[in-house]
Amino acid sequence: MGPKLxxxxxxxxxxxxxxxxxxxSPERLAAVYGMLDREFSSQLFFFDPSPATLEQIExxxxxxxxxxxxxxxxxxxxxxASDTTASxxxxxxxxxAAGGCLRGLEAVLSGQCPICFALVRPPGHHALGGQAGGxxxxxxxAVTAAWARAALGLKRVLIVDWDVHxxxxxxxxxxxxxxxxxxxxxxxxxxxxxxxxEDVGMGRGAGYTMNxxxxxxxxxxxxxxxxxxxxxxVVEGYEPELILVAAGFDAHKEDPxxxxxxxxxxxxxxxxxxRRLGPERGVPLMLALEGGYNPEALAASVRxxxxxxxxxxxxxxxxxxxxxxxxxxLVRKARQVHGIYGVWMGGMM
Length: 349
Ligand SMILES: [Zn+2]
Known about the structure:
Layout: E1 5-8, H1 26-39, E2 44-47, H2 54-57, H3 63-71, E3 77-81, E4 84-87, H4 90-109, E5 115-118, H5 140-150, E6 157-161, H6 168-173, E7 180-186, E8 209-213, H7 220-238, E9 242-247, H8 264-277, E10 285-289, H9 295-310, H10 315-321, H11 325-338, H12 342-345
Helix pairs in contact: 1-9, 4-5, 7-8, 7-10, 7-11, 8-9, 8-10
C-alpha cells in the first residue's frame, strides 16, 4: 500500500522570527516537527516545498502588498501590521508557506497521496489581498484555492476553517465567488471581530460563505455535533472537487489566545470527519496549519488530527458519540440562516 498521508515540512519555516514573547513563534512548529519524528515517521510521506511564484501569489494579493513583503527581506525587522512582524528571513518563509500549500495541492491532485497536511508558518487565513495581519503575511489557502481554480480548472473548492478565529482574509477574497465555499467556525467576539452569522457572501457568492459563531466556552461535544450534522450537508450540496482545511488549533482549552474549551481529542473527530467527506468519497484533501499558540497543546492536537486522518485512534467514536443541546441549537441556527441557499435546497450551480 502506498503512503496514505503526505506532510509538507521545511526547517526554513522556523527562520521566520517574530520577536521575543510573540505568540506566533518558531517553537510552535518545532514542537509539531518533534512530535512527528517521535510518533509518526513510518506512516507519513514527506514533501519538500518550493516558493510560490509571483503569478501564484498575485492571484490573491495586490502587487503593492507583494512589494511591501519583498522589501522586508533587506531588513532585520519590519512591522507589516500592529501584530504582524517580519525578520530578514520572513519573506522567504512566507513565499515558502504558500508554496508548501501548493506542493500539498499538487500531491493530492496528482494522486501521490489522497491527503496532505502542510505544516507551515507564517499562517495565512487573516491576510487580506492588500494587507498582512493577524500574524499572517500571505493567505496561503486563498493562493492555493485560487491556483486550483485558475490554473488547474477546478470549479468548486471547499475551505473548512476550524481555527478559533474567523479567517477574514479567506472570506474577503472569495466573498463574491461561488467557486470557493468558505465554511468557518469561530468565536465571534475574538479577533478579528468578523464572520457574523448573517455574513453569507454577496452577489453571485451569496450562500457560499457560512459562518458559525461558537459560544466562548464551546466544548468538544458542541463543536463535533455541529460539524457532524452540518459539514456533510455542505459537501453533499456543494459537491467540492477539493477540500482545503484552515487547520488552526487555538480552540484548545490550553491555548493562551483562544477562548473555547476543546481537548486535543476533538481534533481526532474532525480529522476523521474530513477524511470521510474527502478521500473516502474520492475528493482530495489538503490541510494547512493556521493558529495554535501553546506549543505542547498544538503538537498534541496535530497528533490527534493525524490519527483521525489516518483512520487510527478514537476519532470515529469521538465524533459519533458527541451529543450536545448547544450543538443542536447551532445546527438549527445554521439551517435557519442558510436554508434558502442552493447548498441546502439540494442541487446548485
Ligand atoms: Zn487563530
